[in-house]
Design goal:
single chain; FAD/NAD(P)-binding domain; Guanine Nucleotide Dissociation Inhibitor, domain 1; 3 domains; binds flavin-adenine dinucleotide
């Protein structure tokens, strides 16, 4: 994290370059920040009236913040932590006790934890945390789980990358790990990491996460931002960019990347009909949108063909306000329920949303389409249907406080006697969020360097050692900035090797 940041700050450009960046999510803002730190002149063009993309949030008519996603920061996010330091906003991270909290499946309302003992170094702290938990796995099961994971610690990334062809479930069967581990641990991990079920998720994702988290003592320690992300995180990024001579424009959708005869970018055509000319161009759009922007002259190139293999996964973020304070847990909870992934009572965990009297649960609803697992296409259901189904899950998580009562549907103005009543809800559907990390996808993530001389890619889905995450977005943007900083010095960062079968497929492809 720090080394690259220092390189940017120490840089004096040969010729300061103007850089047009499409997309004002974390990745586009990160690219712009580090380019402006390096003496270049970036301008961010964000389509929507707010910055942040998947971390964007807005206020409803009551003044309540509605977030695109419940977001957790981990100790093992080196580039993100470095960014908070640089922006001098470290105090905005609300670190929670170092543990993981899982709802018990057989015991409604009960929780069990992985507790991390201070002073025990990684990865032994994680091993010990699991061994000490008596409720989830038997000692025999714990011992059966360890051997297949050891090569990861010894061989590292090579072993991890080789497992990309296997789903989590296939990996477990191959190495004889007990089925119950799937039920007890991997389902909640898969849903938290990529909003999908373990029979869909690539094992590389789980191993990458474990490897990143286990290499640092505090890797799995979690923090909540102290308020909404646009003001508390995107705004200081914007200020840093502008202080160093860059610009950030919202409500500026790009319509088309227009190319010259030789395939290089000529200009950006904006939706309002204007054109943007710059020395360098960066796309920091999500993968599904970028696909539609690939100019015709690039579309037969294997480098851009591979992007077709990546696809965003749907996810739904819920906010549910109750008429009273539920049993307070000042942490993220792994629901281990069929319909939900993680959730938190934001009225307890987050300063800006703090309320002593009433709870506001923020919940991630996943998997929510057959692509992600299960067989219900939740993303197409109405908000009321989604909230109603969620109440059933909450009745199990809060058995003494919440009841699902068909006589009083969750969204009605009354609730069951003596139980908490839902006073308000907000449903945010993200039909295409992070790319679906199903088996075999990792190799298709393109490098930030592209075959096009004046065009660079950023985004959480580009090739970098973190998954589709906030850390991945920050790092992807940083690597894109490095491509441009190096190019200005006559150094060309290599393209990521493209697999032969992509070339073969591309040869078969005939442009429309
Ligand atoms: P995006 O945020 O998608 O940004 C792309 C931007 O490009 C958007 O602002 C979009 O409006 C803009 N754009 C698109 N088209 C155009 C155009 N034509 N012209 C101009 N602009 C355009 N990550 C974690 O690390 N921890 C978590 O706990 C976590 N939880 C999550 C929960 C949910 C529900 C979701 C949805 C995501 C979560 N993530 C989490 C993932 C994280 O939010 C993303 O990985 C990250 O924010 C992606 O950043 P990005 O900049 O690559 O893409």
């Amino acid at each position: 994290g720090e080394a690259l940041s220092s390189k940017f700050k120490a840089n004096t450009p040969t010729t300061p370059k103007t850089v047009a960046i499409i997309g004002g999510g974390l990745s586009g803002l990160s690219a712009a920040k580090y380019l402006s730190d390096s003496g270049h002149i970036p301008t961010v063009y964000e389509a929507r009236p707010i910055l942040g993309g998947k971390v964007s949030a807005w206020q409803d008519s009551d003044g309540d913040w509605i977030e695109t996603g419940l977001h957790i920061f981990f100790g093992a996010y080196p580039n993100m932590m470095n960014l908070f330091n640089e922006l001098n906003i470290n105090d905005r991270l609300q670190w929670k006790v170092h543990k993981m909290i899982f709802a018990m499946q057989e015991l409604p309302g009960e929780f069990t934890t992985f507790d991390f003992i201070p002073g025990i170094p990684a990865p032994f702290n994680f091993g010990l945390a699991i061994l000490m938990n008596q409720k989830m796995l038997t000692l025999g099961e714990k011992l059966q789980t360890a051997p297949p994971l050891l090569p990861m610690l010894i061989e590292g990334q090579d072993f991890i990358d080789r497992q990309d062809e296997l789903s989590v479930t296939e990996f477990m069967r191959k190495y004889g790990m007990p089925e119950r581990i799937n039920r007890e641990v991997f389902i909640s991990m898969a849903k938290a990491l990529d909003f999908i079920d373990p029979d869909k998720l690539s094992m590389t994702v789980v191993l990458t996460a474990m490897n990143r988290f286990l290499n640092e003592d505090n890797g799995l320690q979690m923090a909540f931002l102290d308020g909404n992300q646009p003001e508390r995180l995107c705004e200081p990024m914007k200020q840093s960019i502008e202080k160093n001579g860059g610009k950030v424009h919202v409500s500026s959708p790009c319509k088309e990347i227009v190319t010259n005869e030789d395939g290089t970018v000529k200009h950006l055509l904006m939706r309002d009909g204007s054109t943007v000319v710059a020395d360098e161009y960066v796309s920091a759009m999500p993968v599904d949108i970028f696909k539609r922007f690939i100019p015709k002259t690039w579309s037969t190139m294997p480098f851009f063909r591979q992007v077709d293999e990546l696809e965003g996964i749907p996810v739904i973020n819920l906010h549910m306000w109750f008429d009273r304070k539920l049993k307070a847990v000042d942490h993220l909870c792994f629901s281990r329920s069929p319909l939900l992934s993680v959730y938190a009572d934001m009225s307890t965990t987050c300063k800006e949303y703090y309320d002593e009297e009433k709870s506001m649960l923020e919940l991630v609803f996943a998997p929510c389409s057959p692509l992600a697992g299960g067989n219900v296409n939740w993303i197409a259901k109405s908000d009321e249907q989604i909230i109603d189904a969620t109440m059933g899950e909450l009745a199990r998580l809060f058995p003494t406080e919440i009841a699902k009562d068909d006589k009083w549907p969750a969204t009605s103005k009354q609730g069951p006697q003596g139980k908490a009543r839902l006073t308000k809800f907000a449903v945010v559907k993200v039909p295409r969020s992070v790319y679906a990390a199903i088996p075999g996808r990792n190799k298709y993530r393109p490098s930030q360097t592209t075959p096009i001389e004046n065009f660079t890619l950023a985004g959480d889905w580009t090739s970098q050692k973190f998954l589709g995450s906030m850390e991945g977005a920050i790092l992807g943007g940083k690597l894109a900035a490095e491509v441009i900083v190096d190019k200005d010095k006559g150094i060309r960062k290599p393209l990521k090797e493209i697999q032969q079968h992509i070339v073969d497929n591309a040869a078969k492809f005939t442009p429309k």
